[in-house]
Amino acid sequence: MEKKMLLLGAVLVVVGLCSSAALAIQPMGPPMAGLKQGQFSVGVEYGYSETDVELSESGMSETLEGVKTNIFVANLGYGFTDKIEGFIRLGGAQADVKDSDFDIDFNGDMQFAFGLGAKATLAQDGDLTWGTLFQIGWIQTEDEFEPDVTGEIDTYEILIAAGPTYKMEGWSLYGGPFLQYINGDFDVKYPGGKDSIDVEEESEFGGYIGAQVDIAENTLLNVEYQITGDAWAIGTGIVWKF
Question: Which of 32, 72, 163, 183 is deepest in the core (most CB within 10 A)?
C-alpha cells in the first residue's frame, strides 16, 4: 500500500472514527469559578467548529482543511470551594469533510465524546473577575473503514484559557487567550502490514469572547466565539445551578 493511500486512509479514520470533540474546540464559558462551595450545576452545550488538521507519517505530511464538527454534550459541575469548581462532559459529536484534493465528501456518524475540567477564580475587583480554566477531552476506538483495513485511534485535546469576566446588570462579558493542544495516534492495519500515523492540530494559540446572560433565577445562557490561526468555532449552552 502506497504512502499516499495510507494518508488517505488516515483521513477516513479521522473523519469516520474521530467524529468527536477531540478534533474541535469545545465550548468553554467564563474563565472563572461560577459555583459556590457545595453547589452543583447541570447544563447542555452545543458547539460548531471548522478545523484544519495536519496528517503526518514517515516524514510525509498533508493538511486536511475545513473539518466541520458538531458537538452536543451534557455538563455536570460542582463547586469544591467558592473559587474552584470542576466539571465533566458526556455526549456525542459528528464531523463532516469535503476535500477536493482527496476527493472526499464524507458525513460522519455521531460518536461518543467525553471530557472533564476545572475553573478557578484568581482575583476579583468589584464587577471584574480574573480567572483561568483547564479542560481535556478524548476518545479511544477501533473500526473497519475499508475491506480488510482497520483503524485504531487514541487521541486527546487539552485546552487552557485565562482572562477577565466583567459583570453587568443581568449579563457578563468574558474572554481571553487560550492554548490548545491536540495529539493522537492512529494505527492503520492492512493485509501484510501496519502503519502508525500522527495527527495534530495545526494551531495551538487562540482567543475567545463570549457573553453570559441571566435568563431566570439560577439559570444562565452562554454564547461565545473562538478562533485560532487554522480554526474557528461558535458555542452556546444553558446552565442551571442548584
Answer: 32
Instruction: Identify whether the C-beta of residue 120 lies closer than 8 Å to the C-beta of residue 157.
Output: no
- Cα–Cα distance, 6 to 8 (Å, whole number): 5
Cβ–Cβ contacts within 10 Å for residue 189, how many?
Answer: 15
CA 58 to chain centroid, in Å, comes to: 27
Domain residues of the chain, as ranges?
A: 3-241
pLDDT per residue as tens digits for the range 103-142: 555 566 677 788 999 999 999 999 999 999 999 987 655 5
Give the separation between CA 181 and CA 22, rounded to whole angstroms. Answer: 10
**pLDDT cut 70: percent of the chain above it:** 67
Task: Give the Cβ contact number of residue 155 at 10 Å.
Answer: 23
> Span 3-241: which CATH code?
2.40.128
C-alpha count within 13 angstroms, C-beta hemisphere, residue 162: 4
Smallest CA-to-CA distance from 28 within 67, 83, 73, 65 is with: 73
State pLDDT tens for residues 32-64. 999 999 999 999 999 998 876 665 555 666 666
